[in-house]
Amino acid sequence: MSILTFRNVSLRYPPGAGRSAAREKRVLEGIDLQVASDELVTIIGRSGSGKTSLLNLAAGFIAPTAGAITVDGAPVQGPAADRAVVFQDDALYPWLDARDNIAFPLKLKGLSIAARRARADALLERVGLAGAGDRRIWELSGGMRQRVGIARALAAEPRFLLLDEPLGALDALTRTRMQDFLLRIKAESRAGALLITHSIEEALLLGTRILVLSPNPGRLTAEIEAGFSAEILAGASIAAVKETPLFKRMHAGLTGLIHSGAEEELAA
Ligand SMILES: Nc1ncnc2c1ncn2[C@@H]1O[C@H](COP(=O)(O)OP(=O)(O)OP(=O)(O)O)[C@@H](O)[C@H]1O
């Protein structure tokens, strides 16, 4: 069992960086968070609340201004193979075919060409793309590309999957299929997962825990446990789960939590 921990983490962007150039930007404040490898934790928050910044900290792309981020007690000091990131735009290498995209991280691990190809083929099969290994990225649909991205993330057998709106660019039908897929592949991989999303529905469907990030500065203001992902893994359809009174009640409750304070902010 691995644990990713944020302890009292704050993040400020210095003046001159990004959009608000004149003043220092307080983005995240006092974030305490733990993700264990048997969990899929979703973080939901309004636009600009700091979700991507939080994920970038977990990935080690940026460092916190204060506080500590650790994996099994060891400080995160930059990107590493124990934490794989999947972005909304799949960020695949267009000059490589699907198989070589998946095999790419294995090259860094020093595996032979034959071993890399064998592992990539096994992963292609696992994500339902057996036979598509020779296809170029532009020959794949959006959902297929995201599967390749997820397979590539899994290739190095990370301890944590960090998912930044990975399904955000997909049409509704494909998104539902991919939600189901993501749950299953996460359960099989035994990696912990941190998923950020704008979608309240997706946060509830996929998360074993849902954390609400409130903006200015970003703080975790609510935590909810949900069992819908276990129902889906046990065979319930996503459409059926969404129709249950409990799902609807929790959806309404979460909507209230996320939007409380938004009116005051607009008026201010
Ligand atoms: N490199 C940067 N320099 C300065 N400010 C930044 C930088 N990156 C993000 N910000 C600011 O930090 C705040 C949080 O941004 P972030 O992208 O983490 O939020 P988000 O919740 O992921 O937003 P969205 O849902 O719109 O993607 C925003 O006000 C943004 O303008």
From TrEMBL:
Cross-referenced SMART domains: AAA
InterPro entries: AAA+_ATPase, ABC_transporter-like_ATP-bd, ABC_transporter-like_CS, ABC_transporter_ATP-bind, P-loop_NTPase
GO molecular function: ATP binding; ATP hydrolysis activity
CDD domains reported for this sequence: ABC_NrtD_SsuB_transporters
Domain ABC transporter: 4-240
Gene3D superfamilies reported for this sequence: P-loop containing nucleotide triphosphate hydrolases
Record keyword Transmembrane helix present: no
UniProt keywords, alphabetically: ATP-binding, Cell inner membrane, Cell membrane, Membrane, Nucleotide-binding, Translocase, Transport
Protein's UniProt keywords contain Transmembrane helix: no
Coiled-coil portions: none
PANTHER family: TAURINE IMPORT ATP-BINDING PROTEIN TAUB (PTHR42788:SF18), TAURINE IMPORT ATP-BINDING PROTEIN-RELATED (PTHR42788)
Sequence similarity: Belongs to the ABC transporter superfamily.
Protein name (record): ATP-binding cassette domain-containing protein
Organism: Shinella zoogloeoides (Crabtreella saccharophila)
